[in-house]
Design goal:
Elements: E1 3-7, E2 11-12, E3 18-25, H1 29-32, E4 37-42, E5 49-54, E6 60-62, E7 70-75, E8 80-85, E9 94-99, E10 113-117
Parallel strand pairs: 2-10
Antiparallel strand pairs: 1-3, 3-8, 4-5, 4-9, 5-6, 7-8, 9-10
Length: 119
């Protein structure tokens, strides 16, 4: 069974930084290399939205709202995908999820990690 575990969420002041990690287990390294891994977020009373995704071929996409502030990276050997978040804004407050895909129709999801940006 494929499992994803997010970590790194916290309370941070506006302008601060956080690094989220997504670790995937339950699959071999070869299979992991074939997966796209995406980061998503869901704020209270809002729909889940795509934040960033690193595809199996290492191409990367970002939503316009985080472009230039967030950086996604992939370590296939560790089956980990990180999301470095800089210049955080209150509007970035949400539960952040990783999943095995680049859209909300991804098959496997983690349980989420809370990011709160507030002074």
């Amino acid at each position: 069974q494929v499992q994803l575990v997010e970590s790194g969420g916290d309370l941070v002041r506006p302008g601060g930084s956080l690094r989220l990690s997504c670790t995937v287990s339950g699959i071999t390294l070869d299979y992991f290399n074939f997966y796209h891994i995406g980061w998503f977020r869901q704020a209270p009373e809002k729909e889940r939205e795509e934040v960033s995704c690193v595809r199996a071929d290492s191409t990367i996409v970002y939503s316009d709202s985080v472009k230039g502030r967030f950086t996604i990276s992939r370590d296939n050997a560790k089956r980990t995908v990180n999301l470095q978040m800089n210049s955080l804004k209150p509007s970035d407050t949400a539960v952040y999820y990783c999943a095995t895909g680049c859209t909300v129709s991804a098959k496997y999801w983690g349980q989420g990690t809370q990011v709160t940006v507030a002074s």
